[in-house]
Design brief:
8-stranded mixed sheet, 4-stranded mixed sheet, alpha/beta, 11 helices
Length: 310
Amino acid sequence: MARMIKNLILVVGSSNTDMTVRLDRLPGSGETVIGGKFATAAGGKGANQAVGAARAGGRVAFVGRIGRDALGDAALAVLRREGIDARSVTRDRASPSGVALIFVGRNGENSIAVASGANGRLRAEDVARAGPVFRRSAILLVQLETPLAAVARAVDLAARCGVRVILNPAPAQRLPNRLLRGVSILTPNQHEAETLTGIKVKNGRDAAAAAEALLGRGVESVVITRGARGAFVATAGLRRSVPGFRVKAIDATAAGDIFNGALAVALAEGRDLLGAVRFAQAAAAISVTRLGAQSSAPTRAQIDRLLLRN
């Protein structure tokens, strides 16, 4: 009997509805800024990453928890429309679906507040029920917008099933070494790397030091994303800065999510880590030239065209 080739990407994480206000500048503490433009869209780090992976050409399944409400119905419809297997999504009768309130400034910078809702009630048991999906998967992609117990169960299940784990440690928080030892690839941005290591990441030298600290805690590989300045990659026998792409950014919302979704696709297709990071950077670069979270995710053809031009 022929051996089954596993290339499914399993995303365990959050799903939100993003409510975005675009402004000339972000408001300061206690300040009201008038004149913004309002829009709603599907979001949440987990769902963003799932959509990013699907549009980049991946086969994707999603595990999460959403409310039994209109926002949850809409979120599920988006996942299914993108071709994502959402049969392992749990509907919560007690909590509403998650919501993110986002301010976006003229230069593309953003400020985000999240009401987790049902995302905050994703349980280890919800994840365990998706065991058959883990056994069919090549890559597990997780973030930190759901409870750590659910994330830890997902990482443990992945280890038992021989699945590589990408952990995007966002929003930033301290993590136990036991969890980090189960991570194949950790993908913090500069702020998240500082939270995890205590090292301020302001330049390439700082990124290298933070990566060394994380490798020392048991992570197999580290990719520290640095926006337009590219990424620093560290793994056994390799330390490399990978340059970014020059684009005109208008909205950085979900750029990191698109990066992680595309990274998972490239790895599931068998690319080496440096090649996968370059592919993911191309996807993220396109995303920052567009408005919104999931709406900014590029297609595979668009990613390939940017790579061919650079």
